[in-house]
Amino acid sequence: MVSRSILQRGLILKCELCRGADWFSMEELADEFCCKRCAHRQVISSRHWREPEEPAWFYKLDEIAYLAHYNNLAVSALALHYMEQHKVESFMYTTDLEFSETQDGRPEMEIDFCCIQDGQLFIGEAKKEDQLGENAVGDLRIAERYLKLANRMGIANVLFATIAPGWSARTVTEIERAFSGTRIRHCLLQGPDLLG
Predict the structure, then answer these.
(1) Which residue has the higher pLDDT, 95 or 92?
(2) Is 51 or 63 the better-scoring residue by pLDDT?
(3) CATH number of 71-195
(4) Nearest-CA neighbor of 153 among 105, 115, 113, 99?
(5) Angle at the Cα of 113 (from 3 to 179), degrees rounded to 5?
(6) How many Cβ atoms from other residues are within 10 Å of residue 170's Cβ?
(7) Measuring CA to CA, which residue among 108, 160, 99, 107 is closest to residue 129?
(8) Are 141 and 135 in contact (CB under 8 A)?
C-alpha cells in the first residue's frame, strides 16, 4: 500500500512546548520537526513519542483514496472493471462528470461514470444500495434523468450498477417503466456481476 501511494508512512510526535501532537510524513522529518500548532522547531527525541525505545510507524490513508472510499467510488470502479473485462477491442473511461446548459455553469446532473466500450458510449449510476431512490418516485426520477441526458446527448446505453446482491423489484420496475418504448438500452449490473 505504501509503494502504491495508498498509505503514507510517518510518525506521531508531540511538541515539547505546546504539547500538541500530530502526524508527520517521512518527507517532513529529518533530525528535527516543526510543530504544526505553534511552529516550534525541535530535535526529535524520546520525549516526543509514547514508545519507550523508538517511535512507532503510523500510516495515513492518501486523501484521494479516502475521498474515493467516502464517495463510493468502489462501485463505479467495479462497474468500469466489469465493462473493461467484457470489451472485444477497446475501452476508455472516466468517473464523475457534471453536465450543465446554464450560463452560470451550475451542474444540472452528475453521472457516476462514463465509458466507451468497443465504440459504444455508456453512462452510468453506481449505488451501494439495491435501489436508486428512497421510494418508487425517487427511482423513477433518477432513471428518467439518465434517460433525458442520454436522449439529449445521443447516448444509446445507460448502466445502473449496485454492489448489493440484486436490485430491488421496485427499482427494476421503475427503471423498466422509464425506458419502456425508448431506443435507449439499459443494463442492470449487480453484486455478483461486479464481484464475479
Answers:
(1) 92
(2) 63
(3) 3.40.1350.10
(4) 99
(5) 155
(6) 16
(7) 160
(8) no
Of the candidates 36, 59, 55, which has an alpha carbon nearest to the alpha carbon of residue 46? 55
Place of cell 439499459: 186
Model pTM score: 0.71
Every domain of the chain and the residues it spans: 7-62, 71-195
Long-range contacts of 88-96 (CB under 8 A, 24+ apart): 88/118, 89/118, 90/116, 90/117, 90/118, 90/119, 91/115, 91/116, 91/117, 91/118, 92/116
What's the residue count for the chain?
A: 196
Question: In degrees rounded to 5, what are phi and psi of residue 136?
Answer: -60, -40
How many whole angstroms separate alpha carbon 53 and alpha carbon 138? Answer: 58
**Contact assessment for residue 157 and residue 122, using Cβ atoms and an 8 Å cutoff:** yes
